[in-house]
Amino acid sequence: MSGMQTFEYAPGTLPADLDPDDPLHGELLQLNVGPQHPATHGVLRLLVTLDGETIRAVEPDVGYLHRGKEKTCESLGWRKFFPHTDRLDYVQPLMNNCAYALALEKLGGVEVPPRGQEIRVLLMELSRISAHLIYLGTTGIDLGAVTMFFLCFSERERIYDLLDAYTGHRMNNTYVRIGGVYADVDESLASAIREWVDSFPAKIDEFERMLTGNRIWYDRTHGVGVLGADAARAWSLTGPNLRASGIDFDLRRAEPYSGYEDYDFEIPIGTAGDCFDRYLVRIEEMRQSIRICRQALARLERSRGAEFLAEDRRYVLPPRDKVQTSMEELIFQFKVVTDMRLPRGEVYRAVESSKGELGFFVASDGTSQPLRCHIRSPSLMNVQAIPLLAEGRLFSDLVAIIGSLDFVMGEVDR
Amino acid sequence: MSALERLRGILGEGPYRVVPTRDAATPCLEVERAELRELARRLRDECGFESNTFVTAIDRLPARPRFEVDYQLLSISAGDRVRVRVLLDEDDAWVPSIADLWPGAAFSERECFDMFGVRFEGHPKLERLLMPAGYEHHPLRKDFPHHGIEPDRLYREWERGRARGAS
Fold first, then answer.
1. Is A61 within the bounds of a domain?
2. Which residues of B43-59 are buried (b: 16+ CB within 10 A; e: fewer)?
3. Cα(A206)–Cα(A203) distance, rounded to whole angstroms?
4. Fewer C-beta neighbours within 10 Å, C or N terminus of chain A?
């Protein structure tokens, strides 16, 4: 970049080149899309200005799902906020748990034992696949590929069965703690996950057979919603949307966490930055996630019996049996539950979630009451980019663009 | 070379102050409001911070100055992050907008205005992002109670409309 490059941010403003005397153009129609519309993937409202079929302006209106999560964190305290992180991006709760735990561990200086990190990596990659399946299924059904919806959701159901076996919940698992995870992955669960991991690559091939060479899918997504590399960076896009525009940036490589630096995987990069590239990037990311899952399972096999939760009595609850036999452990439990303090200061820690850079900026004043917990939501930035991609395109492309940007309103509004 | 050494090499001792934080990898630069835009521009054009990760604020009531506006910037090419902060008094809570330098910061600034009432002068559309238009409070301020403030003006208007028979 050279000189004083500036960008004009002016949503909802109309271009000056409209000719009111042109019989084919000039008559503008304002169309309200949402907030309750299946193609908006949640409660997103879009105010679209149409000139015939051409989109002249789009203005996203968010906030319909605003629940005040950041304020809730300040009133609940650090530990009790964990279940609320599940409800941010509700298609990948364990990923949100991990991101929040990593931020608190960075502030508190907690080391997670290797087995805890391996379980976290496994859970994060399962979450990523599950979230990408939602993307693929919902975008497919929006663009007319109804079968994709059933294929993807039945696979996702199998991930939910595995998580159900592990956590006891299908959704909103809350199984990550400061210092590790709540429970170990036992042999029967590991073999069930391994069985699914072995069966899934064939399913990805099936998805690709349905879509990649499909004429309708190709025409609806190829060359639609093109995003250049400079614009993607300047508009704060991260994750698959950034990589589809040709930028090699993945937080698992750039700022490794949970031992990702020791895993062998590749980062798919797009070239054109259109909806089709974003689709291809996510498909390949699922394959790479399977590779990481296999490595994590092999490591779990080797580290069986090791600690998966740190023995840090400042932040981690003592085991239940010790609490009932030892006075000291009971005091630790009482302190952690009622008065867990993090050191004074602010840190920011982000993970590569399925939507992009999911980060927590946590500020503590040294008391048990959080001073500030800002959630850096990748979905909000993805919503912000809708006008950039959609303006000047046909109205039917808006559905493809919304689907390909991939956001979840729970995370946009928080 | 750490991120701070790299920045010092490019910016010199500059109009900023380095604040020690618990985050060793991310330098935190404190800057006066008047110098913010110049520093932001140099960070973008000379230090390669192509992306704004977020803009947010911290309300340190009852400390003075009350607000701290935080900018987190990311350099994808250098793999660095930097945090820039500006301290603001309550009765003078405004900063110049950086949405023309990083268009991705526009929603973050709107959210920060919505939640804290910090004004971003020069922002192309400084409206509430998450709370409804016409809402009277700034919920993330420390003097806003956790249980909310009711009845709010919007709620009272809705009640009056309902009493008149409108749905």
1. no
2. bbbebbbbbbbbbbbbb
3. 5
4. N
Q: Which residues contact B154 (CB under 8 A, 6 or more apart)?
A: B132, B134, B135
Q: What single DSSP character describes residue A317?
A: P
pLDDT in tens, A140-194: 888 888 898 999 999 999 999 999 999 988 888 888 989 889 988 988 999 999 9
B17 close to B70: Cβ distance less than 8 angstroms:
no
Please state whether the predicted TM-score (pTM) of the whole model is above 0.90.
no
Please state the domain count of chain A.
1
Q: Please report whether residue A160 resides in a domain.
A: yes
Q: Answer for the pair A414, A257: CB distance below 8 angstroms, yes or no.
A: no
With CA atoms as reference, the chain A residue closest to B144 would be: A71
Which CATH number goes with the domain that contains A142? 1.10.645.10
Q: What's the complex ipTM?
A: 0.87
Q: Is B107 part of the contact surface with chain A (CB cutoff 8 Å)?
A: yes
* Cα(A343)–Cα(A363) distance, integer angstroms: 9
Domains of chain B, first to last: 3-128 (3.30.460.80)
The pLDDT value recorded for residue A210 is 87
Task: Check if A348 contacts B (Cβ < 8 Å).
Answer: yes
pLDDT in tens, A89-138: 888 999 999 999 999 999 988 989 999 999 999 999 999 999 999 999 99
Contact across the interface for B130 and A414, Cβ inside 8 Å = yes
Domain residues for A187?
Answer: 69-413
Radius of gyration of chain A (CA): 23
Residue B52 contacts A where some CB pair is shorter than 8 Å? yes
What the block records as the tokens of A413 is 């509004």
Q: Chain-wide mean pLDDT for chain B?
A: 86
